[in-house]
């Protein structure tokens, strides 16, 4: 370039044009403006490169460009706002669905205590083929929770990095499907099995302290992102509102233990003895229920006694069976195909003996144990028949076990409809077993012969009333407490303690899970009825047990460590972001647009600098 601001030749101009292939480059100085149109020269460089000294024309051009830029920025801001709101709505739905699904994952794990009953309930209720429905639903919820956790994690990561949160439409559809699934679970449980919600409330008594620690850890980790986003906010009121909400949640998490009453927090020397075990229908967790082999295996597990339901056959013989019909636990479809749904009390005992009571266990594998059985064990299981009450009592006499008997009334067509209890009592007395070995429900049948049985109540009554009724044992279903009683742990503790001090033992059924067994252990229950006697028999201590001092120290330590970390994060973020000016019009979850604006600003600044190097006259 020459000193007068013109080029020395076409070669030099062509080189510059090829190097800076842009729509337009303007240089405005006091003396001239040089314009290069996309490197294209018409009839020489004097046609493509020329001076413009008309300042009025210059102002008109700049005004038009400013107006166009203003309209463009306005459209961009509106578009950005719409996308921001859309992404925010999707993100909120994602978080709600994730929390909803995580809740159901926890709930379904808690429901493991009743998994077998759920499988059979689902099968019988909807007349389906037996399948491990509980496990299938658990896997479905687990996969859904994992999938949503990945989406939430990626969203949080992108927000923390200042990137846009763009959720693909496919994922949006999957989020909605998972959300609707959770709603479906809720409706189904409330409709068909509302009692299971009691299990959820009970679980908080044992896992509450762990939930407290987990929530504090998660909230502390998220603080890094939350504080950074808080700094970006430009409105004081919004900042204040966000800060108050954050502090309220944090303080609430810190004081949660004040509202957690767990029986496992107690002095070390006050931990009650391990509850004794009643084998529910025998060792039904590893053998066909209510068969001789099931009760024999239970006796080998050092159980305190057997529990079973007793029915009366058409010819007056008490036999062992839980269901009203024989469909579930026998091969009646093969032997009596026309009587599949008939009441079991319409069969004679000889007819009942012709049924196989063990093959179903090998075919259905309800407890998922068949794969671990030997061929000899499978052969034994396959040859089981329905047993009589007399056979069960003989086994109890031989092994020194107690028997928890629940006599079921037969259908009216049965000639022993009015004398069912008496028939059972007659068999018991004729076997010569000690009366105290028989646990008998006090409300069902009273006679001089049942007085010496272990009288058992089924509802919470004051100690004075139980004593008057000569009740020495109380039998309660795990979820028989009312909602208020479950939430009020003190009530349970006081009742069980009063019973214990008055020599009234307490038995709870059905207890299969380690956590539920630990809960009632710490509560001081003397015995539980279980399918899993082979598992609970090996447990030597509760799931966890802390003294009040240790628990308080753990709680306070976790809170203090969390507070220190949060304060450190606050200081670090304040130092990092101090002096940083955030433009509310350009800060959004859409980093691509934000980067476009910043890039345009960069080019608008850097381009004149390059032009100064190229076009500056001396």
UniProtKB/TrEMBL annotation:
A Pfam short name: GDPD
List the lineage, top down. Eukaryota, Metazoa, Spiralia, Lophotrochozoa, Mollusca
GP-PDE domain location is 275-540
Q: Does the keyword ATP-binding apply?
A: no
One record GO biological process? lipid metabolic process
Where does the record say this protein resides?
Answer: Membrane
**Membrane topology summary:** Multi-pass membrane protein
Question: Which parts of the chain span the membrane according to its record?
Answer: 88-111, 131-157, 169-192, 204-226, 238-260, 551-572
Which gene underlies this protein? LOC115229605
InterPro entries with a match to the protein in the record: GP_PDE_dom, PLC-like_Pdiesterase_TIM-brl
Question: What SUPFAM superfamilies does this protein's entry cite?
Answer: PLC-like phosphodiesterases
Keywords linked to the UniProt accession = Glycoprotein, Hydrolase, Membrane, Transmembrane, Transmembrane helix
What terms describe the molecular function in GO for this protein?
phosphoric diester hydrolase activity
Q: Name one GO cellular component term.
A: membrane
Looking at the keywords, is Transit peptide present? no
UniProt name for this protein = Glycerophosphodiester phosphodiesterase domain-containing protein 5-like
